[in-house]
Amino acid sequence: MISVRRGAPTVVGILILAAAGCTTSESVTKFCATASTTLTAAGPVFSDMKQSCLREVNSRIPFGSFQLPVQDDPGCAMIGAQAEGAQAAAKILADYFNAINSVASFGAVKTASSDAKDLNTKTGPAVGADSPGQKALASIAMFLASTAASGYRQEALEKDLTGVSANISAVVDALVVIVQRIYIGEQLKSEEQKLRIRYEDFARGKSSPEVTLMLDDRWHADEQALEAKRASAQSLVTALQALSKGFAELAANGHSLKAKDVPALLAPYETQLQALIPQVQKAF
Amino acid sequence: MGTGQPQLIPVDLAAAAAELADVFNDLSNVLDEFRIANLAPDTPRDKEIKAHAQALEDQSHRFTAESIGAALQSIQADLANIKTVTRQAKDQLKSLNDFSKAVCIATAAVGLGAAIAAGKPDSILSAADALRQAL
Question: How far apart are CA B70 and CA A177, in angstroms?
Answer without folding.
Answer: 20
